[in-house]
């Protein structure tokens, strides 16, 4: 409750706390983030199997915590250069609050995801649904951070006004880092027709994968097993799959 109370009172970010109180708050924030991440990850991976659920939950924790560890040092150093008077723990509490809100909103959409999975949602549709949920929840998480920093600037006078503008640029960097990190941790969910995979091996990037998923929704593969087919003269029906093409080539 202490973690969520801070959302309703901006002053709570800057209350004078003892070291033990600050450490406890930060620990509780990280604990809540991990709890929501692993629960939502279980929902993501349940589209495929129990093993994929467990792995997806762990990967989602690594995504949130890893992104924070990668991006926070640059944010702290830049703010100090700009003249911020906020302490390290105050900044960390603000950033973690945004992550808490992001993970909480994402987890609140878990029943929606479960409904579409139960009612036979297409793999590519579910994939795009997860992306939309993270973008939506991330928007509110970043918005919370901006509100807290504006309060520090206008009411507390311990944060430089230019720092708020720089923070918006940092948010863009945070977005690209999280996307790249998520791409390297994939898959969070697997197609039911595929075997369990801890990591994917093929190349590409997040943006081409999203374009491909959108194309699959508008014009899915005609073949029953989802493999691409090619027209080759001399075959009975004029259609073969990828493995047949390779075999014909080798012959």
List the helices and strands and how they pair.
Blueprint: H1 2-5, H2 19-45, H3 50-81, H4 88-108, H5 110-118, H6 123-154, H7 161-185, H8 206-218, E1 230-231, E2 239-240, H9 242-250
Antiparallel strand pairs: 1-2
Helix pairs in contact: 2-3, 2-4, 3-4, 3-7, 4-6, 6-7, 6-8
**What general outline do the C-alpha atoms trace?**
elongated
The value of Rg in angstroms is 23 Å
* Average pLDDT: 80
Number of domains: 2
Instruction: Catalogue the unreliable spans.
Output: 222-251
Q: What kind of sheet is the major sheet?
A: 2 strands, antiparallel
Which percent range fits the helix content? 55-70%
H/I helix tally = 9
SSE run: HHHHHHHHEEH
Strand ordering within the main sheet: 1-2
Percentage of β-strand residues: under 5%
Head-to-tail CA distance between termini: 68 Å
Number of strands: 2
Task: Tell me the structural class.
Answer: mainly alpha
How would you describe the overall organization of this protein?
- The chain is mainly α.
- It has 2 domains: about 1-210, no CATH class; about 220-250, no CATH class.
- The protein has helices at about 1-5, 20-45, 50-80, 90-110, 110-120, 125-155, 160-185, 205-220, 240-250, and strands spanning about 230, 240.
- It has a two-stranded antiparallel sheet with strand order 1-2.
- A hairpin with a 7-residue loop joins β1 (about 230) and β2.
- α4 (about 90-110) packs antiparallel against α6 and α6 (about 125-155) crosses α8.
- The longest helix has about 30 residues, at about 50-80.
- The radius of gyration is 23 Å and the shape is elongated.
- The chain starts with a helix and ends with a helix.
- The model is unreliable at about 220-250 (pLDDT under 50).
């Amino acid at each position: 409750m202490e973690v969520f109370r801070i959302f309703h009172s901006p002053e709570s970010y800057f209350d004078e706390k003892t070291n033990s109180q600050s450490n406890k708050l930060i620990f509780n924030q990280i604990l809540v983030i991990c709890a929501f991440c692993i629960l939502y990850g279980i929902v993501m991976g349940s589209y495929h199997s129990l093993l994929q659920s467990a792995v997806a939950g762990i990967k989602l924790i690594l995504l949130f915590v890893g992104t924070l560890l990668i991006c926070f040092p640059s944010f702290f150093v830049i703010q100090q250069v700009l003249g911020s008077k906020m302490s390290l723990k105050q900044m960390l509490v603000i950033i973690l609050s945004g992550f808490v809100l992001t993970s909480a909103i994402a987890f609140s959409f878990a029943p929606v995801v479960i409904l579409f999975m139960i009612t036979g949602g297409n793999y590519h549709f579910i994939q795009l649904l997860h992306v939309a949920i993270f973008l939506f929840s991330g928007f509110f998480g970043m918005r919370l951070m901006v509100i807290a920093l504006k309060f520090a600037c206008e009411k507390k006078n311990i944060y430089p006004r230019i720092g708020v503008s720089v923070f918006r640029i940092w948010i863009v960097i945070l977005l690209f880092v999280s996307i790249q990190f998520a791409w390297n941790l994939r898959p969070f969910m697997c197609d039911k027709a595929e075997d369990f995979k801890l990591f994917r091996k093929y190349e590409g990037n997040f943006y081409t994968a999203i374009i491909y998923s959108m194309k699959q929704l508008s014009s899915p593969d005609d073949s029953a097993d989802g493999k691409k087919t090619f027209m080759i003269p001399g075959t009975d029906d004029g259609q073969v799959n990828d493995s047949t093409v390779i075999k014909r080539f080798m012959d």
